[in-house]
Design a protein that fits this description.
By secondary structure, the chain is an alpha+beta fold. It has helices at about 1-10, 20-25, 50-60, 75-90, 95, 125-140, 160-170, 180-184, and strands at about 15-20, 30-35, 40-50, 100-105, 105-110, 115-120, 120-125, 145-155. The strands form 2 sheets. The chain has a 5-stranded mixed sheet with strand order 2-3-8-4-7. Mean pLDDT is about 85; it is low at about 70-75.
Amino acid sequence: ERIASLMAIGQEREPIEVDFIKEYSTVIPCIGPAKSGNNVKIYSAFIPGEILGSIYSQYGSRLLELNVRSYLQAKGNVNKGMNHTLEHEPEMFLPYNNGITATVSKVRLDNEKRIKELVDLQIVNGGQTSASMARALNDDRNLKEVKVHMKLVEVNPEDVKTLVPEISRYTNRQNPVSEADLTS
C-alpha cells in the first residue's frame, strides 16, 4: 500500500515527520543554527534516548534509507559496548557515544528556539546507536538518564537528493580504531 501510494505521487520515499510536542509532549533544546555552505543549517541537540528509540521503533529502516550503512546487529563490539553501557551505566552513554548525524528538509522551532518538529528526517550516521535505543526500549530498559548527541543538518528540499548522500558518505568515513591503538 505504501509503495503504491508513493508511485502514484511520483516519490521515491515517504518523508518522515516528527512532531515532538504532539507525539512526545516535549521540545528538544538545541544550539544553532550555524549556516554552512549554500542553504545548509547545522543544529546541535541532545535527544533523549527514549525518544530516539521510540522514533526508530516506529519508522525502523525507513529512517536509514539515505544511510550508506545499516544496523550491524548487536553482535559487533561497538553494539555490545553500547548495550553494556545502556544496561550498566546509562548515565555515561552521552560521554561514551559519538551520537548521530541526521538530515532534515525543515526544522521547526518554537518561540524559545527549541526544536518542535522535524520534516523529512533521515539518520545518515548513527543507525547502530538508534537501533540500540530501540532494542533497549524493547527490553524494558530504563533510558530516562540517556541522552544522545544529535548533529542535525537542515538541507533545502531541492538539494536532498544530491547533498544528503554526500553527507552520509563523509560522516561514515571514519577510520577504524583497534584495541591495540587504544592501549598504546
